[in-house]
Structure formats: C-alpha cells, structure tokens
Input
Amino acid sequence: MGSVSGPSSSSPIGDLERRALAAVSGARIASDLAALVAVPSVTGAEEAAADHVARMLAAIGPAVAVERRDVDPIALARDPAYPGAEMARTTLPLVVGRLASGRPGPRLILSGHLDVVPPGDLGAWSAPPFQPVVREGRLQGRGACDMKGGVVAAIEALRAVASLAGEDGWLPEPLAGEVLFVGVPSEEDGGAGTLAAIRAGFVGDAAVVTEPTGLSIVTVGAGAVTFRLAVRGRAAHASTRTEGVSALEKLELLHAALRADEAARNAAETDPRMRALGLPYPTIIGTVRGGDWASTVPDLVIAEGRYGVRLGQDAVAAGADLEAAIAAACATDEWLHDHPAEVALVGGRFDSVALPADEPLPGLLAAVAHDVDGVEPPLIAVPYGSDMRLWVTEGATPCVLYGPGDVRVAHAADESVALDEVERCARVLAAWLVRGLAAG
Output
C-alpha cells in the first residue's frame, strides 16, 4: 500500500475523473436503492442483504472481484477489542468488492453497514417500511437514510471507476493500487462487523464510511455505551404503600441525577467542535420494566439507556463516569445507601474518535467535492458513535464519515433520503477514488 496525498484543492477535474463522473447513473441509483431497501436486514439478520449486495457487485462485471464470507461471532467475541452486541446472531456476514489496477499503490476503502434498526410502530408509517416508495424525489423505507443510501452511493462510485477498466480487467495508467467496497453487519449494536472485516485484513490507506452526514465530512465523533440499572425497593400492598419502598420512585431520583450529570459533562467540554453540537454527550433512559401487580409497591425496576462517551474517552472510562454518578446519587438517599442500584454496561460500546489535525484525507475529499459539486463541505463533529473509530484505532486506516441523508430522520418512521443527494455523493466518491489512485 502507498500514500494518499493527492493534488491541491485547485486541481481541475482530469479526463479519467470526468469519464468516471459520466458513468454515474441517477436512474440506476434509484433502482438499486429501492431493491436494497426492500430486503429486510434488521440487526442480527443481515444475510439476505449481504447476498443481495454481493449480486450487485458481481453485476458490475469482471473487473470487480467479489468475496462473501461469514465470520463466527462467538470467536470474534474473544477479541480484546470486541465492541459488544445487543442482538443474538449466528453469523457476521461480510461482502467485499475489490477493483484493482494491477500496479502497486494505495488501497482506498468505501464501507457501509447493511443492518437497519427495527421499524417500530407500523401504524406510524405512511407505507410499509420494507416496501420503498419515492415521493418528491425522496426514497422512503427503513434503512433508506441509515445507511443503504450511502451503501448504494459507494457501490455506484465503485461501478463508475470500474467503467474505466480495459478488456483485461485492470484500471488504466496512471491509476495504481486498488479500491475495496466493504459491506458489514452489526453497526447498529456496536460494530462487530467492521471489527471482523479489519481482522480479516480489509484495511487500507484511507477509508470513507458513507453514513448519513448531509454530505458534510465528519472528522470527530463522540461515542456511547449502553447501560442497565437494576433498582431495588421493598414490596408492600398498595393500601399500605408507606410500608414499602417503591423502586420506581428511587429510579426517579437516579434519573434526576443522570440529567444533572449530563448537564455537567456537557458544560465541561472545551473543544469547540463538540460544543458546536449543543448536546454532544446525551444521556437517555430508553426502556423501563418493573412491577408485577398493579396494587403492589414495585420492588424491582430495570432501566436501560445510553450514556455518551466524551471526546478523548473510551467506553471503559465513560462507564466509570456513569458508575460514579450513580454511586454518588445512591449515597444521598437513605434506602439507596444501603441498597445501591446495580450498574452494568451491556450491548454495544462505541469509543470516541478524532482524526489528527494533519491527516490529509479530509482535505483531499473536501477538495474533490468542491471540484465536482462546486461546494466545499464543512468538516464537522457528531454526537454519536460509528464504525469510523474502529477503522482508525483497530484498522490503522484514516477514516471519515461522508454520505447522503439527514441523521435526524435515520431511525424514524417514514425514514427517507433524497435521491439527488445519493447521486451527488456517488459522483464525489468516484472522483475521489480516481484522484487518490492517480496520486499513489
């Protein structure tokens, strides 16, 4: 593998870039995205989507070699960097498309996750979530935004560059090196799919994960951990409730403490990129279960939620912050002092990530976007975890997020993505690939 420095932002679009841009098809993007969204791939059951993507890659032609493999999640869970999981699964299905020049040079990676979150209340959807529809230029369906739109943009970019290949299947000079598209499962519950891809050797000199960023370039990201609180009380008949201790009331006290902790952690942040987000490290309790009879004081409540990982922290350090906040709150209450809530980190663990200031990847991608699109995208931070941190920390691969869609609609009913934005993303990525290979 080689270096990826590339021309400056003043570089014009070259002939090979122009040819690749001309090969991007908006009609094909719309058709491919509808077909992929129609394949349900809720986290834990991504096999059919991986098979579908493998067929999409094979349809590009002989210039792209396709590999489809299944990784044992039990074996991967023994990896010291295993990022956790929240869904039971029997396999981690990976799909990789490889486009080579036949000459040594950089390896550039486009990657996206194939899993989607459950559709939730079907009554809240205006159309069935896995029956995509197009309305006013937006394709709607579960996963359209997060992140099958980005996956299709990446595959279309790969296809556009593959159109430059000769009859021998190799890319023309001066292009050198290779391009990989890496489709992964299990991002929504931790990132085990990307860790599996990295351990399989699919690393490179630069990577773009096509998460929905509204075509901004993400260079800094917070993280998150999932936690479980077990809060105990003392049961009593409702008619004599003062004889008992309500676990739900004690959870209310802990919830207030978590809100205060959230405010303090966010107020303490000094990095302007994170402060610009307003609430870079949100805390939320998402599920509450407890009680076993309507007229009995509940003696156990289980709450599960999400806790932000601050910039510069890993998930372990954030977990220690959470435990300290709960312990401090318990110490202020007579009952909880003697019966403290139990805290456990469960499910996915997302460390924070920040690219070094001197990393050339963001600047090169921004320059290409300016040349192609006429607008230079901003470099931004995000308040959520992503596979970016695994590419950087475990794969030693500089990585940014750049893709179509608005994350605010990502997990919502009637999730959608603008088709013209998917096409714009594909065009920028195609030019970035050509320019990066030419610079190798």
